[in-house]
Amino acid sequence: MLEMKQLTLPVTGMTCANCVAAVERNVKKLDGVNSAVVNLSSERATIAYDPALLGIPEIIARIEHAGYGIASGEAELVIKRLADDSDARRLEKALFNLEGVLGVQVNFATEKARVSYIPTVISQAEIHRAVSASGFEALELGGDVEDVEARARQAEIDQQRRLLMTGLWFTIPLFIFSMGRDFGLFGMWAHASWAPWLMFILATPVQFYVGGQYYIGAYKSLRNGSANMDVLIAMGSSAAYFYSIYVLLSPLTGHVYFETSAVIITLIRLGKFLEARAKGRTSEAIKKLMGLQAKTARVIRGGDELEIPAGDVVVGDVVVVHPGEKVPVDGVIVDGRSAVDESMLTGESLPVDKQVGDPIMGATLNKFGMLKFEATKVGRETALAQVIRLVEEAQGSKAPIQKMVDRVSAIFVPAVLGVAVLTFLGWYFLVPADPLQSQFTRALINMVAVLVIACPCAMGLATPTAVMVGTGRGAEAGILFRNSESLELAGKVTMVVLDKTGTITRGQPAVTDIVVSTGSALNENGLLRLAASVEKGSEHPLGEAIWAEATTRELSLSEPAGFKAEAGFGVEAEVEGRQVIVGNQRMMTMRGYDLDEFESEVKRLQAEAKTVILVAVDQTVSGMIAVADTLKSGSVKAISDLQQMGLEVAMITGDNQKTAEAIGKVVGIKAILADVLPEGKSARIKQLQQRQDGTASALHVVAMVGDGINDAPALAQADVGLAVGTGTDVAIAAAPVTLMSGDLHGVVQAISLSRKTLRTIKQNLFWAFFYNVVLIPASALGYLNPMLAAGAMAFSSVFVVTNSLRLRNVEF
Fold this sequence. Notes:
The chain is of the alpha+beta class. 48% of the residues lie in helices and 19% in strands. A 7-stranded mixed sheet has the order 18-30-29-28-19-26-27, sandwiched between helices. A 6-stranded antiparallel sheet has the order 10-9-11-17-12-15, with no helix packed on it.
């Protein structure tokens, strides 16, 4: 069986949480679908499926059968090198076989290709490359792929505006005439026999043109075996409209409610228009990230410098970037020196110095000197593309708190329909008659008010809109949440455990002291040379420090033989016929070596927060090398900020207790977890998460902060893992939260943003539930006119979206 593939589709036509449930339910019925998560705010469906059992066309067909659409783009390319019609058919077949392409037309006579595609699956640049791979040349490319979903959303806004304006043109004069007539402002002529017919003429276009979408949506919803917001609106407005027609055609006299049905539909359309505009702003962070991409690139091919579209750069190209220009793709510098502004990706405000051999990221800005670099990652493999993908995945995922909302939404509309029926029956049979209004009319009006006041939209938008804005704001600050769950959990953290090396410190230790045994024939350089020979090529930061010091002193190193490494202890090898062991005190004690001579010196160095490395030659400890790591500039401030937020901060390290406590004292951390081997970190995290009696009752919600690779088990064990990176290995970070910069202040920002997002979600949910819990009974009891109910319903979802948008202004 093949591995599951993940597919993201832009879905159109969803209006409320019930629509989301309908799409999910229909897609999950397909054989081969493992999971389906639909997000109302981003209007995307994320589907995991087995490609051996199912294809994209079948998934799209199922969604369309459920009554919803898929936003697609269209690219028009001018094709050269087509020799005959068979070439056109061959290219057509090659393009149609691309995943994400819905349709292809290649015309040999006009030398044009028209390609319909899904923008979340394939990009225009990939289509362009497929044309080249088939032996042809695409000289002209259509509009930017990234604009496809924006165009679909803008089309929705334009349609809502058009329908709203039409509704206003008919509803305002109808409402003024009806109210003036009821209050006796227009005289007896307004009560003429033709007056109700005028109201009928004004209300009918509103009912069936402006409100036509609600009838269509209601039909599709009922066909899928569920009921959504469209059902409530269609029933409520239709009850008022068709009752009025009955009164109009009946010989009986009575009040018509054409203005009620028209105002209901127009007010709700106003709310939908404002909601659509506000929802468009929730994805602005993604648009900003996409806007960072360079449009063109200068490459050296055949000895000439050419300017080509950035999408045409291939791995191995040598790219030239002049001062003030954007870097088009990721690569490694082969010539030049400069300072590069990486703030748009990492949040770091200061430019970073770059020279030959340094990595460089696409979308960053070259400030001063000219650079040449070899392209290593292009297209969807660049750091920026991966950041965009991660943010989109996080925005498309469901937060745990949303699951409760989904359960409520599943029964919400049927429950409202039940309350509406009970309202009608209660007012018709149980409430005493009113001489000014018939029993039936009064019962009908109150039932209509219940139908139109209910708002599943606010509940459906409460969580995803806040998640979209929160994750987007985080991305702008260089904080990447992999899913909604990590965004929610980070706000509940009570304890933060910081790995020392590379997190609190720079991870670039340097040799500070060399102490040689009084009985040894070696001097400082001799001891250092033997130790550095063993550590030659070491990837451990302490080993690198020893090797770097020997290189600085220009010592001649020998090739080690029989190299062995013991994780958490040290290394050993044979150098020039002598057995050399370089390791910590535990390693020497395990070997039974005498350390009495160095005891006082070890204590002194450890008190200075230095790590002591002992060197044994031929089974005798000949000396020691002290190494110290420098603190990152913002570590002390960041730790203080975490503590001021009410969080308990601990440091975990493989250093001995005294060295660790010395570092802890400098940075202000009292809880020290020392002498912890790499494989023991996850166990210590688990101990912090549970009570001392071993029960599973949580004591702390623990966040672990590490480098994302060496600390992978501990990051996975923690409730929230935060990987401190440099922004170049986004895809391989093991933690659910990645901090693009190496600054520890990113932890403060991530937790603060999560708390504010969680608070916003709770505010939204409170409003959504409070609104329905209070106003539905108020409508049932007759306290709310249907027109006021429609207005309240229209603005409830607007309030939720607008409240979420406040997260865009979060300052760090």
